[in-house]
Amino acid sequence: MRESKNSYKSQITVNELSWKPTKDHKNILEKINITFDKGNIYGIIGPNGSGKTSFIKNLLHFVEPDKGNIMIEDVNLLDYRRKDLAKKIALVPQNTTMDSSFLVYDVVMMGRVPYQKRFAEASQSDIDIVTEAMILTDCYSFKDKEVDMLSGGEAQRVLTARAIAQDTEWLILDEPTASLDVKHQIELMESLVKLKKHKNKTIITVLHDINIAATYCNQIIMMKDGKVHSHGKTEEVLTKDKLREVYEINFEILDNMKNGKKYYIPYTCD
Ligand SMILES: Nc1ncnc2c1ncn2[C@@H]1O[C@H](COP(=O)(O)OP(=O)(O)OP(=O)(O)O)[C@@H](O)[C@H]1O
């Protein structure tokens, strides 16, 4: 891993990032410039096909930029060894079905692989971290179930527990609430707030639900057509004008008396 000459920064910096899946394809991501600072919960929002998942794939080095770069704490993402990157950033993927007969407990324990020597048994610390991650995501009661027997929402919680067990400073989630019932949506988002507050994690999460983003994220990145349309503090980004420009629909914005945040109601003109 090559260190840059600059002073150490606790940031992920995305510089002029452009990406296309093949040489002849048009750009899916276009000149993205953004800095993620530690200690925040970032919500990435935007319409279908605006490039949110493609952006995340670049952040995790699943694909490589065509132009620009991504620096993680002053080191180019492309220079990280896979195992070192797995100790820095964990991912909760979108809608993954787990087609195997592994037990829930074993899948969550896979989050500890970057820290374990080959063929070594789990340490007491691994077991404690895995247990804590399962309790936080409400998976402990079905830890001995086979994962291919789980409902979509249960599977999503197991994958979240596995990412938490990876114990990284950065946690990236792609639509983590998509298949969860309303109670588990709230519980998952509250567990992310706890991870930020008590374990010093920085969260970057793709969300479709603007009200969930408004309630739990203190920073928003709003994408449209492969570009960052606007980014910054949640209430400064989630304005009627900006939301209309991006989603092509109107929004009524109310005060949410329960939590002091805003509440967003979409509506059409006719
Ligand atoms: N490997 C690929 N080959 C061709 N097109 C791709 C590829 N990956 C993404 N795209 C296209 O890039 C665009 C952005 O896709 P992406 O999945 O990043 O959007 P998204 O904002 O995450 O969408 P959604 O909200 O529907 O999940 C889409 O039009 C998609 O079809």
UniProtKB/TrEMBL annotation:
<feature type="domain" description="ABC transporter">
    <location>
        <begin position="12"/>
        <end position="250"/>
    </location>
</feature>
<protein>
    <submittedName>
        <fullName>Iron ABC transporter ATP-binding protein</fullName>
    </submittedName>
</protein>
<dbReference type="InterPro" id="IPR027417">
    <property type="entry name" value="P-loop_NTPase"/>
</dbReference>
<dbReference type="GO" id="GO:0005524">
    <property type="term" value="F:ATP binding"/>
</dbReference>
<dbReference type="GO" id="GO:0016887">
    <property type="term" value="F:ATP hydrolysis activity"/>
</dbReference>
<keyword id="KW-0067">ATP-binding</keyword>
<dbReference type="InterPro" id="IPR003439">
    <property type="entry name" value="ABC_transporter-like_ATP-bd"/>
</dbReference>
<keyword id="KW-0547">Nucleotide-binding</keyword>
<keyword id="KW-0813">Transport</keyword>
<dbReference type="Pfam" id="PF00005">
    <property type="entry name" value="ABC_tran"/>
</dbReference>
<dbReference type="InterPro" id="IPR003593">
    <property type="entry name" value="AAA+_ATPase"/>
</dbReference>
